[in-house]
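B., you asked whether I could sanity-check this one before it goes into the benchmark set. Here's the sequence:
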Amino acid sequence: MQLKRNLLSVALASATMLIAAGAQAQETSQPGTPGQDATTLDSVVVTGIRAGIESSISTKKDSTSIVEAISAEDIGKLPDISIAESIARLPGLAAQRVAGRAQVISVRGLSPDFATTLLNGREVVSTGDNRSVEFDQYPSELFNGVTVYKTPDASLVGQGLSATIDMQTVRPLSFSEPVAVFGARYQKNSLGSAADSDGDGNRINASYIGQFLDNTLGFSIGYSHLETPIQEEQVGLYEPWSAVGAGARPGVPAGTFYSDGIKALRRTGYAERDGVMATVQYRPSNAWTSTLDLFHTEAEQVDTANQFEVHIGGYNGNYTPGLSLTGAQVNGNNTFTGGAASGVYPLVRGMYNKREDEINAFGWNNDFAVGNARVNADLSYSKASRDELNLENNTQRLPAPQLDTVNLGFSNSDFSQLNPGLDYSDPGTLYLTNTIYGSGYGKVPSVEDELKGARVVVSLPAPSAAGWLSNIDIGLNYADREKQKTQPEGNINLGPQGNTTIASDLQFDPVNLGFAGIGYIPSWNVPGAVDRYMTFNPVSDLSYLVSKAWTVNEKITTGYVQADIDTEWGSVGVRGNVGVQIQHTDQSSKANYWDGTANGGAGAAKPFEDGTTYTDVLPSLNLAFSFEHDQTLRLALARQVARARVDDMRASLEFGVDTSTGKPGASGGNPRLDPWRANAFDISYEKYFGDNRAYVAAAYFYKDLRSYIYKQTQDNYDFSSFVADYVPPPGGVPAQTTGNFTAPYNGQGGMLQGLELSASLPLDMLWEPLEGFGIVANASFNDSDIEIVDPDSASSVGSAPITLPGLSDEVYSFTAYYQRGGFEARVSERWRSDFIGEIGNFNGNRTLRYVVGDDQLDAQISYEFGEGTMSGLSLYLQGSNLTNSPYQTYASSKDRPLEYIEWGRTYLVGASYKF
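And here's what the prediction gave me:
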């Protein structure tokens, strides 16, 4: 890994030096012919990867802010198979894989919580518990480009603290003629078929862009269908890894760090997604343009984890003999790495998940000329929903007990091994029964997120006395957002037939867990088994479930004034803007909490609502200085905010009174949270070559986070309203009015800084025989003195302070390509160092884990027919995750693994036709 990192660094440094020397030599050798060069270039039609790269370079160069951009190489063709994969290759950005797909994005070392995502300039909702967008829900075939704003300006509404990511669809009147594209690809996963699922999938897309009424009316529509297999091999160990006491795990020396359980699984299933985008654009004259945007996506994911699991912490249902370990192996870090565990009672489990997501977005924009001014009015609406069904079946060998001996071998670089002595491949020996983990459990989570917005912007020409200004924008935006979550749960109990095997008509093909040393285990139709043999009645009104439902509301009024700068200081051109944005936020949340003291101690659910208001003044300055030889120096200063996580702002809580002291206490969310706030400084140097064919850039950023949100315990919290009706038990004491409340609070912040290097170079600028070859590379280096404590994640990351979630010290990306005569080939690799990532735990809440640095290699080749009867036809062959890079998590040190997952390689072959 160190070698790969060094190679990427050397490649980037070499590209920077070569492009600066070679391309500069070309410019200085022909000082008198820039006009002729421009004329020649104008006659060249650039297509494919070069078209996308040059368009992205132009976007970066022309912006007054510090931005990164991705542009479609053609209609319905972003550079990668997903938006997240493309975004993750940009300088300063890194992806975290979920289910084998790049799904969430960290920017500049900050977790996805700190970035916001826009769709055509409008903030969008999410189907998760928080704000961060799951990018794999947005089909790459429907988008024309993505712009990442690393520095804000006052007119950027919905801006994030780390960045603002704006996904853009096509504008039909930007095209000179109608065009249509149809594409289809077949997909194959290298892990192949298992259980009832195969390793095949497909992608289909179609787009049309047309102009009517003498190019005053434009219409575009796109459709994308995705069906992808879910195939996963995983070994996971229980958390926490803890130092055991003498005799606590017989045969294991005292002080040894030990995990109490291990599982191996093969996950199988599928994910389907259908997306539709449409835009109507009407421009009868330059005085009025009206644009209507519609977007819809719906997705369904169904998967089952076919799982072998064994508790090795001394619990086997209280059968004898109990746990004993022989041949225990302990490394130099006092970590248990292997041995034979006897007296254990393994399970074979079926863990089923069905998730349905839907996102709808609408936007209507009207731009008018009113005298010398322009007025822009925008209305928007978006809504997202998520519905899940989680079911669990547990089976064991009967009659009980059938204790086993399992040979263990733990690894931090491969699948850990667990080799049982008994045979678990015969479904006739495995019974749905009240196992050591019960017979089953189920959940029905649901999320709805709704956002309504309205915006008016007036753009005025600057007064003639202020000749260094070009125009002044005054804007007002209002956003009303409501997000709610419910999560009914319950035991899945055996029906009247009692213990039973699962009938053959519900059995799927067995799955092979040989990668973990187990061999074959049965797999079956989990919801079918629940329907036939079990009962499941999820509820939400039990004491431990009431606090899992909540609603959060935000009403944000944003006003801004921004002056655009366009002047010259001597021979130096100066562009940019200066302005101030004022945000007024009114946030609230309502939920029920469980009062265990009510009804004479029987308890009852009671409503609770809380909230706060605050106002932020956010000045910003962006300056771009244009020097000779196409050099740009950018400076930016800004006050930035990122609103707190939605689930941290929930009003739900768990409440109780200590009957011996009368002191109340609670834990939960905090609707009174202020946002994260930071003062930011950015500087960037950029050198462009050959009419935006190439560039090199170096950027430095510094963020002074004035606060950070931590989970803390506050004493003397006012519980007056909670204990107003409190009746102490016989002999008890009256309730006090203040006590301890554990919740997220605003606390001390700190410093975050980073350096970003990037370059894009077509190699024929250095040596003409290399025409068609090129490289794109970047490297990012991040550092922060902020440390946080997350009590909810103590079992995985410990109770000591940890670094910022999402922060990788180093992130690299490198792409080498060749394009000529219709043939195109590219190889891309991205790598990030270890970081603390966010996952969902069994309770449906987020938890943090140490994640081993991610390394992914992708490649694709294509050929486009240029002339003749096959003109417009393109053929593709793509490969993703070609090294089958694993996803690994660990606890405190790498020799204490938690998860080792492989999702296999993905291959796609297909064609598209443009006409």
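One thing to flag: Residues 14-44 have pLDDT under 50 and may be disordered. Otherwise nothing jumped out at me.
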